[in-house]
Each structure stands twice: as C-alpha cells, then as structure tokens.
Amino acid sequence: MTGRHAVAVTGLGVRCGAGATPEALWESLVRCRSAISLHAFDDEGTVVHPAAPMTGFDPAGYLTVKETRRADRSVQLAVCAAADAVEDAGGLHVPSARRAVVTGTGYGGVISQEAGIGHPDVLYAPRLMNNAGAYWISARLGVTGPSLTISTACASGTHAVGEAMQMIRAGCADVVVAGGHDSPLTPTTALAFGRAGAMVTECADPVAASRPFDAGRQGFVLAEGAAFLVLERLDLARARGARVHATLTGYGRTSDAHHLTAPHPDGAGAAACMRQALADAGTTADAVSHINAHGTGTELNDLAEARAITAVFGSRAVPVTAPKAVTGHGLGLAGALEAVITVMSVREGLAPPTAHLTQLDPRCELDVVTGEPRKIPDGPVLSNSFAFGGHNACVVFDSPHV
Question: Is 294 designated active site?
C-alpha cells in the first residue's frame, strides 16, 4: 500500500424505488420496507410481474424538458443521483482536468432501444448508448479528465467504483464521480428473464418476492435506478474540511471462466475475488465486520456465494446482509447501490436486516442478519457483486477514523 493515495467517500446520491435519497434508502433497509410491488411492464398490462420501479420520478430541476427528451430514463436517473452525490460532497474542488467519471450499466438505454425499433428518430443512437450516462454527467460537472463506462452485467456498478479508486491511486484523477445506473423495466427484458427461469414472475405476496438465501426463493426481481459516489483523495478531502463518510480501501476483480450465466458452483472465482479485495485493503478475513452480499435470490447464485463466503470466512463467522430483498435487482445499478449501502453501514455501525427471510436454506451456512439491524464494530466491510458472464467484483470500505 506504500505510495498509493488513500481514497475517501465524500458524496452519496441515489434514485431508486427504495428511496430517492441515501437516508430514505437506509430507512427502507433498516425497517425491511420493500420497494417491490406488482408492475405492468407494458401499457396494455399483458406483462405484469413483481418489480421495483421508481414511482413518481421527475428529473425537473436537473434536466430541462429538451434535455429529458434527449436522454433515456436510465440516464435521467443517473444525472440526478450523480448531481446529488456532488452536492453531498460540497462540490468538486479540483481543476476540471483532475476530475473523472466512471459509470457502470448493464443494459444502457434499453427503454429507448425497444421504443425505437423499426421507427428510430434522429436521437435513437445517442439515447441507447451505454456511455450516454458518462457523457451527460461529465458535461454537467465540467469533467475534462477521464470519462468512461463499464458494462459487466450485474457487476458493472462495483467495477465502476473500484476502477475509480484505481484512477485516484494511480494519480490519474483527484476526484471521481463513480456509480451505476439501469432502467430495464421493459416487457422484452421481463419476458426474457422470466422465460429463462431467473426472475420471479408470480408469487402469493409480491412485496416479499425477493428472498435471498431463503429456502423458498423463486428468483430475482427487476429494479431500476441509479447510485453514485464521490471519491477523492483522502488528504485533499481532509485539507478542505470535507465530511468523509468512509474510506474505500480495497478492490478485487476476477472471472469464473465457467459459464455465460451460471456461477461456478463451488464459488471459487467469487472466493478469489473476496481474498483479492481484502489483500488490496491490507486486511484479513477475521477483521471484517460485515458482508453486503450479492444475494440475488436465485438458487445457483445464492449457493455459489454462500460457499465462497464460507470458504473465505468460515461457517457463520461474519454477519451477512442481502439488500436486494428490499431494493430488487437493478442489474448494472446493483453494485453501486450496494456500495452506497455499505458506506452507510460503515458510517452508522449497523448491518441492515435481510427482509423476507423466513427459512434459511440449510445449504447456505451463513449468519444472515434478520429482524432488526445488528450493531457492528469499526472495521472493514465487504460488498460483493457476482455477475452473468462470471464477472466478479468486490470492494472494501472502512471507517475514516481507524
């Protein structure tokens, strides 16, 4: 770790069904207040499944009417969340060339893509580009340093945060606005995941449709939203008197090289990723106070992740939370949203409970937090993302006071 710039988290911003602010999101998590309900994916109401939309979203005040027409809903959510993160940080206090943006998205402008098939207008291509979010944010924030987009399915948001940290460590930027965004609530997306057997299509109680690690799980639940963090050099943040929510200390990324959609059943790639992140943070498994699990609620993912956590930490050795029980699964958004949640766990000293877990799958030898939030000591907290394609990404956050 010698010679590397330490990285602070100074700003947080979110837009999702579980909350339009980090505080509202946190309240939903600690109270197990699910954002999931029955959702009509098409205007005719022929595709209706549990989902976690952001109802009442309005980008007014962030984008003009003309700008809104030019941006996919996913990008609109991203601009709002990124702007809020920068406001929370108290602004960007470095020259424009020392600023950077890294966005993660799995689906890009899929709403615009589906709506324009067969009759595209002149703005069709720029609306659906995966890097549109990075453009809009960099233009809005005056970023003339690096601006890029990562698309690694459900690991995109975590990869974006981790790569942003590497930029600061390497001296490529002093402040990076990093996060993820996706708005995949389209009929084609829902039908595809439903027919693949990965997504919940019907259940007795839609509010409890997402049940990670539960013996009665039925799959994941689609969600939309955006989440961004402002990362900056810790020394510069302290010099300007910034509030530091947490420090970002470690990053791991590995590949399963196993299957296009299924994780390696023994979780070897995921375990290697967690070990890599901990080593990068200069810490050990026994120091970790909490794990924010990827926890999608699909059998293959839950079992592989549980085996990986057990391999690294031991059976029931560290408290685990699966926020997707409340937030749903936002694909490229997920890792960034859970990075925000993990930062708040560090800041508040609490592990939120996992909602709707009534019977832990006995094959998952985990200490899953349920019922009430659990107090955790100062120490490293790990956030996991394990995606289709075998893309694994983990980040480690810690208290700025240790």
Answer: yes
